[in-house]
Design brief:
22 strands; single chain; alpha/beta; 617 residues
Length: 617
Amino acid sequence: MNVATNAPTRLRVRGLQVCLAGTNTDVVSEVDFDVALGEVLGLVGESGSGKTTVALSLLGYARRGLHITKGQVLLDGQEILGMPERELPALRGGRVAYVPQEPAAALNPVRRVGKQIDEILRVHEGRGSRGGHVAGRVHDVLSSVDLPTDRAFLRRFPHQLSGGQQQRIVIAMAFACQPGVIVFDEPTTGLDVTTQRRFLGLIADLCATSGVAAVYVSHDLAVVGQVAKTVAVMYAGRIVELGPTATVFETPRHPYTRLLMRAVPSLDKAEVMEGIEGQPPRPASRPVGCSFAPRCPGVGPECLSSPPVMVDLSASHRVRCVRVRSEAQRTSGRQVIPLVDSAQPGPAVLEVEGLRASFGTNEVLHGVSFRVPEDSCVAVVGESGSGKTTLARCIIGMHTNWAGNIRYAGEELSHGARQRDGDVLKKIQYVFQDPYTALNPRKTVGQLVAQPIDHFFGLARAEADARVVRVLEDVSLSADFLNRYPDQLSGGERQRAAIARALAAEPDLLVCDEVSSALDVSVQAMIIEMLRRLQAEHRLAMLFITHNLALVRGMAQSVVVLSQGRIVEEGPVEQVFEHPRDPYTIRLMSDAPRLSPAAATGSGQMPEFRADRATER
C-alpha cells in the first residue's frame, strides 16, 4: 500500500521472496509496495538490507546464488515473475529498464555511443524499424537529457565522455524505449552536489512527463527526500517502514528509521552524528524475533519472541514494529558541536601560496593560496573537476607538475615525495577515497598497519606489535582484525583500517580525500565522528576534501571553496555556509540536499529542472 494517488498503479509488488539457492533461507521476504504512473519510490537502507536484490527482482532477475521463490511483480497488471525465459530479453530494457551505479558498467567500451543507443532501439522496437525513425529517436532521447546530437558526439566512445555525460547516456538509453518501469540503483553516488541535483531534477522531470514508474535505490536519505514521493525503508531483507516521504521523514515511527535519520549530517548546524552500533544480521543468522532487536535502543521482551508484522498507521503509512503504537513520534535533537573561535588561528602546519598545477600544458590549479593551522580542520569543497584531488596530490607529493610554494612547518616541500625528507613523509599522511584499492589485498590488516611503524620507527617486534594493536583500537577495530584480509572486511572496516595505517606514522597533518563518499549513512557517521575524536585526541591538523557539504558543518573550522582550479571563497564554516558571498558558493549551498520535512515535500518533484545549467558539452 502506498500514498493515495489519482494516477493508476503501474508497478505492484506483493509477497516478494528471494532465497539462497537450494535453501529456504530468505534474503528478502514479505516485500509489498505499489508505484503509480509518473511517480518515484525511494528504497533506502544500509548495505546488505536487500535493496538491490529487490530492485533486480523487478527485472525478473536474481544474482548468482539467489532464487526468486515466491511473490508477484505486476507491470500494468501483467506478471513478470515466471515469464518464459525467451520473453525476458524483450522485457529488460524494453518494458523495465535498469540504471546501475557505475555508468561505465552499462556501456560497451568499444562501441560508439550513438551505435549503442541505436542498437537498443532496434532490438526493442523491432528489426523492421526504419533507419530514419531510429535516427530520429536517437536525436530525441539525447535531447531529452540535454546532450549534443551532432555526428561528432554520436561517434565518441564512452571513455571520451565525462562521468556526467556517461551517466546521461545511460539514462537516455533507459528512457529510449519508453519503458513502464525504471530502476535506478545508486545512480548519483559519488557525484558532487551540483551534478547530483541536475540528475535528480532530470530523473523527476522525465518520470513525470513520460509516465514512468521509478524505483530509486539509495543509502542517502537526503537525496531520496528530493526525488521520491514514497519511501520504503529496508532492514535485513524486509520493509520496516513504508509511507509518504514527508511523513516518514517528519515523524519516523520505526526505531531503525529514526536512527538512520540521526546519522544524516546537517547542513544547517554543527551536530554530532550518531551511527548505529552493531551490524545487520546475515540471512542465515537472524534472531527469532525482530531482526533489529540486537541494535534497537527500545527493545522489549515482546520483540524477541516472534517476527513483527506490518502495522497500518494510516491508509498510506505502515510500520513493522510491535511497539509502534507506544513509540514517540518525534525524537530529541542531536548534540550541538560548540563553535571554535577561528578569529585567532594558531601557527600554520601547512601553507600553500600561489600554487599552479598542470597536466601537460593544461593548467588545472591557478594561484591557490591557503593555510592549515595546527589542531584545526580545513575543508576543501567544490564540484567534480574543480581541482580538489589534484591539490591534495600536490601537497603529498604524488603530483609533481606544479609551481608555487608549499610549506610544512615553515619548510619548503620538494615537488615529489621521493625527494622529501623521511620526517616529512611521516608527518604528512594521506587517506584515499577508495579503501578497496588503497589496501594491498595480499596483506593482513596487521601487516598493513605495521608497515609504516616498521619503516619509520624501527621498533622491536613485540613493541611494534603492541603499537599496531593500540592504533587499531584507536579506530575501534579490535585485535581480532589483525589476521583478516581486506576482502574479509566491510566497507566501513576497510576505511577504518586505512585510517589506522595513516595514524600509525603519528602524523601532524592528515589529508582525507573523500573518505566517506561511498559509505552507508550510518557507517559514514561513525567514520566522521571517529575522525573528529582522533583529531582532538592526537592534536592533528586535517585537510578534509569532500563534495558532501553537510559533513563540513560538523567536521571543519574553516572551508575553502574551489571552482575550476581557483579559490572563489574561504573563511570560517559558519560564515561561509550561512552568508555565502560568491555566486558559485551560493549555488553549491542551494544544490545540496537537506534532510528536513520542508525538503521532503512528498511530491516526487524537484524544483524546476533548468537545462541551461545542466548543459555539459
